[in-house]
């Protein structure tokens, strides 16, 4: 195949554009915010599960506290009634003695219940503190995710603009190259991971970075400049400078 020197030079420029597009697409796919956002979302999910468990625990402890309060209120009411009966003095001495005994028993029970209630109140306070800390942590993670999303969108927009510009340059350049050469270039790109054309730098292919032997180099140098040369090693189109 033959192609003008101008077409071959434009082909190298096309390769530079395609390489820039490929590099930008790779950077877009591998923006660090991708991994960071995924990690933060995972932490958010874990935090929500832990928060739900902590809130359930707090609800249970509050139920325990309310039950304890009712028990204390019940005993307190009974003591008040017995003390009222005792103050009235309408009962017989034996009954008054029984009332006094019951009051003493109830007061002991009241003390035990109040101690238990105080312990449960402390558990409620501790559970509330845990829930508040978890809620604060979750809010912090959500704020972090928001900030990372903003960073990602800004970086994405910048790379998208870069890709759009390069694609526009490509659209302008391709018609300036013979369709036969472009077709060969596209075919080679598909076979070599996106690099279809490379410069011949001295005796080395800039595509595979392998040096030509002296015989092959002499053969290439003797060829017409419009003759399309292929690297013997990687089969990329070689453009001589």
How many H/I helical runs? Answer: 5
> How many separate domains make up the residues?
2
Write the H/E string, N to C: HHHHEEHEE
Largest sheet: 4 strands, mixed
Backbone CA Rg: 42 Å
Q: Mean pLDDT, nearest integer?
A: 94
Low-confidence runs (pLDDT<50, min 5 residues)?
none
Distance between the termini: 18 Å
Helix content: over 70%
- How large is the share of residues in beta strands? 5-15%
Please state the overall shape, judged from the principal axes of the Cα atoms. Answer: rod-shaped
The structure class reads mainly alpha
Q: TL;DR of this structure?
A:
This protein has 241 residues and is mainly alpha-helical.
Structure description:
- The chain is mainly alpha-helical.
- The chain has 2 domains: 83 residues, no CATH class; 144 residues, Helix Hairpins.
- 77% of the residues lie in helices and 5% in strands.
- Strands 2-1-4-3 form a 4-stranded mixed sheet.
- The longest helix is centred in the middle third of the chain and has 81 residues.
- The two termini are 18 Å apart.
- The model has no long low-confidence stretch (mean pLDDT 94).
């Amino acid at each position: 195949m033959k192609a003008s020197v101008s077409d071959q030079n434009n082909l190298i420029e096309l390769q530079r554009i395609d390489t820039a597009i490929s590099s930008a697409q790779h950077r877009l796919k591998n923006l660090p915010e991708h991994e960071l956002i995924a990690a933060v979302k995972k932490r958010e999910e874990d935090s929500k599960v832990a928060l739900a468990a902590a809130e359930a625990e707090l609800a249970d402890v509050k139920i325990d506290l309310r039950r304890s309060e009712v028990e204390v209120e019940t005993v307190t009411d009974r003591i008040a009634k017995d003390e009222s009966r005792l103050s009235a003095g309408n009962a017989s001495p034996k009954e008054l003695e029984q009332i006094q005994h019951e009051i003493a028993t109830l007061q002991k029970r009241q003390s035990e219940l109040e101690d238990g209630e105080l312990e449960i109140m402390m558990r409620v306070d501790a559970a509330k503190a845990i829930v508040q800390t978890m809620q604060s942590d979750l809010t912090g993670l959500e704020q972090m995710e928001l900030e990372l999303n903003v960073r990602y969108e800004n970086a994405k927009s910048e790379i998208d603009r870069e890709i759009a510009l390069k694609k526009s340059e490509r659209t302008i350049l391709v018609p300036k190259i013979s369709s036969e050469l472009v077709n060969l270039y596209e075919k080679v790109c598909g076979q070599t991971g996106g690099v279809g054309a490379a410069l011949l730098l001295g005796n080395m292919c800039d595509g595979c970075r392998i040096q030509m032997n002296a015989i092959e180099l002499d053969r290439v140098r003797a060829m017409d400049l419009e003759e399309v040369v292929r690297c013997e090693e990687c089969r990329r189109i070689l453009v001589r400078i």
